[in-house]
Amino acid sequence: MSDEMSRRAFTGTAAAVAAGLALPGPTAHGERHRVDALLARMSVADKIAQLNMPVCLPEELLGDSPDPTGTPKDREAYVRGATVVGEKGDRLTLGPGGGFFGLVNQSLSGSVEVPHPLTPRQQAEQHNHLQRLARTTRLGVPLLQISEGTHGSLGPGSTVFPEGLALGATFDPELIGRVYRAVAREARAVGIHALSTIMAELNRDPRYGRGIWSFSEDPYLTGRIVAALVPAMQGDDLACEESVVVSLCTFPMEAPNTGGLETSPVEIGKRTFRQVHLEPWRAGFTEAGALMTEASEQTIDGLVVHGSPRYLTDLLRDELRFRGVVIGNDVRGLVREQVADTSRAAAGLALRAGVDVSLSWDEIYLDQLAAAVREGTVDEALLDRAVRRVLTLKERLGLFEDPYVDPDRAERVVNGPAHRRLALEAARSCLVLLKNEGELLPLSRDRVRTLALIGPNADDSLNLLGEYNAFPTLHPVPSIREALQELVGDDVRIVHVRGCAVTGTDTSGFAAARAAARQADVTVVVVGEQTKGGYFSPDRTDGELKDTASLDLTGVQEQLLRELHATGTPTVAVVVTGRALSLRWAAEHLPALLIAWLPGEAGGRALAQALFGDTEPTGRLPVTFPRRVGQLPMSYDQKRARAHADAYVDLPSSPLFEFGAGRGYSSFRYDRLRLTHARIGTDGTTRALVDITNTGPRAGTEVVQLYVTDNQASVSLPYIRLRGVRKVRVGPGERVTVAFDLSARRDLTLVDDRMRTVVEPGTFDIKVGSSSAHIHQRVTLTVT
Fold it and tell me: Which residue range or ranges hold the Fibronectin type III-like domain (predicted)?
């Protein structure tokens, strides 16, 4: 496999649980006894097979790779223990395999054509077949089946929910928990036990393509999302037919990296890492008990994470109390970065550091690990430690008792009516209206008789789905054009013209676009990014392996906006995107700007309903939108010197749109912010209450945001930090009281110069507003 293909483009995470962990479900002496008894009967070859769960790549992409996943025959041989690895003196016949990664992702999310994709029933039957083979082996150890789950299970036909920042834009952890509960149900129904690439990382560099999976730039919001989704997916009993193991990724971080480039190093201070980036991991591991993670492929401050006990043992296991299994997908990086001089040495470094399972089918964790154990350079007890974690997780998943699933249930559960309704609810909640000059939106069927629908994403349903999606969907996914036509019927005439592509320089469609706009009452132009086509599509502009040096609209899309604006027809810009973009011209000149993100299979319907006012956009920006890429790094929680900095010579220093920005179709007044206790101790609590009145003509949803400013501290802190969010529905003329609970130990801490997380006495400004830049009420809290 090429270096590029071996990167995380085709991988995710698998996991296991350390012995002695208090996991969901009962812990019994009998379970430990079974694991111990199995270990005692295992050869080194058996153990190593349990620690290799290879990514399943389509046969067309494997080339000369020895990876045993390309054909059903190869996979069956691996399950039975008939796979031979290594050369000459290091040849090794593996024991029965431990499991697979991504078996249901037949097309690599659209990278290759699949003439006969497996239905949910067939996926369940495929998994059952392999489990039967595994149970007939000498040890009878069941397989652990793992898949990606960024915003849905990847088996064809699965429900495709909004991706990454779209979910973050809902500002609704409870809704996101329900989304991932549905994802877990669909995955387990077809025989998947663990879902990976569930992001606890912050989105701090929009150039970075893999940031497409993450939820927000803010540690508090990301932490609350993670704390909601982990128990929703893992449930109270891992053996339940609706539960899967959650793999939070990628630990401890992969961004912000140098230049926003994939696998480039991270250079960040220890205090900043702890102050800013650690909170979501605490929420996911210490608070919620996630049972998997994947080791970052990056080097951080010169430490190669795959070989770092500081990160993978001291921080992860000792401090954060993680008791799951660490997945490695780049043990080869130890050799590449010249930390290890040989593959054999790399095997010892990674296993000692805490990497348990390898996904990349690399000699390092195959024949070279066996040779290192044979020579005595790697203690077999370290091998046992990792295998014990894998076997314990399989035990807790109930796989030794029953590794099979019901194909009939798979048909019923996958993309069932309740999940389709949830996908629509999530898509409605993620839309962010950033500008609505003259109340152009919502459109009225009475006043709009002809609508010009223009742009490369106006009639392209695949570009609404994002990456790592279930491909093919096996069920209808309406485009924006199709959804609009279905919604308005004969009431509104829709004139559709593509205008241009997402990429390229072809302007031949401009004339038709201008003509359509001139005859219309309003123009809706849908521009943005392209994520369809899988990893090798030359026109894909966002996602894994698609970092960018510019945040401007690609191709001639901005030129198309200019042409349509010049017609004089009121124009609404809808932006389909997986990252923050610099939309300077559109923000200045067009009357309405709506961010659709990557809204999933129901995105077309959600957008149609929002444009015509059947629903309202209720999302808010989970990341800062810069004016230009040259302002990066840029997040809302800047230190005071940056927050109050002078302008650039050629540009203001402020963002184009701030974190938390967005509006609906109503207006709100904030009154009477007060605290139940204006003075508390360093371990005290108080409650902030604020009155919200709907001053508009229709019911509306407001996203009330609470921020904290520490007025004096021993270290420089961000000027403002989010510490509370409430999403409330308020009728016209109605007033509601919104409450936030504040804990000094949770919400007012800092990391001091000795790396201690402490609460320092002093005064704190408690601020409530509609975004990080629009604060409507404030009050002072004293901590003694």
Answer: 702-772
pLDDT (mean) for 560-574? 98
- Number of neighbouring beta carbons within 10 Å of residue 362: 24
CA dist 671 and 107 (Å) reads 54
Q: Which long-range contacts (CB under 8 A, 24 or more apart) does 484-490 make?
A: 484/451, 484/453, 484/604, 484/608, 484/611, 486/605, 486/608, 487/605, 487/608, 487/609, 487/612, 487/614, 488/445, 488/451, 488/608, 488/612
DSSP state of 55: B
Could you tell me the pTM of the whole model?
A: 0.95
76, 133 contact by CB (below 8 A): yes
3-state secondary structure 422-457: HHHHHHHHHCEEEEEHHHCCCCCCCCCCEEEEECCC
Q: What is the pLDDT of residues 147-182, one digit of tens each?
A: 999 999 999 999 999 999 999 999 999 999 999 999
Which tokens hold the place of 468? 């790592």
User: What distance lies between CA 178 and its chain's CA centroid?
Assistant: 15
Q: How many CB atoms lie within 10 A of CB 359?
A: 28
Taking only the tens place, the pLDDT of each residue in 543-557 is 999 999 999 999 999
More confident of the two residues 692 and 28: 692
**What does the alpha-carbon distance between residue 64 and residue 743 come to, in Å, rounded to a whole number?**
58
Q: In Å, how far are 154, 198, 291, 294, 297 from 246, measured between CA atoms?
A: 15, 7, 6, 11, 19
Residue 501 Cα distances to 172, 556, 585, 752, angstroms: 34, 8, 19, 51
* Residue spans per domain, the chain: 3-412, 431-631, 668-783
Architecture of the domain delimited by 431-631: 3-Layer(aba) Sandwich (3.40)
Quote the percentage of the chain above a pLDDT of 90.
90
Q: Rounded distance, CA 433 to CA 572, Å? A: 11
Separation of alpha carbons 743 and 138, rounded Å:
55
Residue 347's nearest CA partner among 384, 372, 380 is 372
3-412, CATH topology level? TIM Barrel (3.20.20)
Q: Is the pLDDT of residue 678 over 60?
A: yes
Fold of 668-783: Immunoglobulin-like (2.60.40)
Q: Give the position of tokens 């036509």.
A: 485
* Residue 588 scores a pLDDT above 60: yes
Q: Do domains 431-631 and 668-783 have the same CATH topology?
A: no
List alpha helices for 64-172, DSSP H: 72-80, 120-135, 165-169
Question: How many Å is the Cα radius of gyration of the chain?
Answer: 26
